[in-house]
Every structure is written in C-alpha cells, then in structure tokens.
Write a structure and sequence with these properties.
elongated, alpha+beta, four-stranded antiparallel β-sheet, four-stranded mixed β-sheet, signal
Amino acid sequence: MIKKIFGLATLLFLILVSCQSKIKNTTINSDKVIEQQPTAIHYDLAKNYFVKSTVKKIQNPKIKTAEQFNQIFGMATTMGINGKPTAIDFAKKYVIAVILPETDLKTTVEPVSLKKNKKGEIALKYKIEIGDKQSYKTVPFFAIIVHKTDDGELIVTELK
C-alpha cells in the first residue's frame, strides 16, 4: 500500500513540475516578443500656430530650440478659451514639424503614430488628405511636441 501511495505522489510531483516549466517558457517567449515591438511615444499637437510666409522648406523636421521654432512659425492667437498657442518648454521638449508646399487645394496633414523602435530610432507616420479647390492658398502642416527623454534619429514616413 505504501508503494502505491509513494508511486502516486511521485507521479503527481512530476506532472506539476512539467506543467510549471512550460508556463515559464511561455512567459519568457512572450516577454521577448514584447521587447521587439516598437513602443508608442506620447506627443501633444501644437495648436494655434502658422508657417511664416518666408519659409518654403525646412531642412530638419526636428526643432530643438525656441529660436529655430520662431524662425519657422508665428502665433495665431484667437479669442476664447482655446485661442492661445500651445506652450512649448524647449528645456524639456522638442518639436517635430511636417510642412507641405503652399496649395490652393483643401489639404489636411496629420500624425498617425509616433513610435520608438528597438534601435532607438523615432518613427513618425503621417497621412495627407486632399480635397476640393479653394479660392485661397494655405501651407498645410502639423507640429507635435515630444519630451526630450524620447529622442533619437528621426524617420518620417507618409502613409499612402
């Protein structure tokens, strides 16, 4: 009788140990998959700014100082609660701007995603929507504000 109980206890122990090792392997594998995924970066949209008429094209979409920013953008203050331009603290943050050429077509350009890949590169994806002809010209753009802790080489891609 003791041999049967000892044999049954040994069998249960082996089953529990084998199940436990499978769970650990699954956890390790899922952690590796998570590490390989790009991580989303939080950003804020800079509102109530316009591209100055002297700017035709920018060399680098990453703007790290207020001086650079002020050479490209002007404030478009309007009345009301949301009329002030978004405040930007360049000591802690930087701006990524996408500026399109002047057009008389209704054009919107907006960010879709901002992620950091495993190489430390910042990948910005954006989309453009083109509408009807207008009686005036505009310079479509967006500017996003990113914390300096999320810095790296910038890769900008338009989604088609």
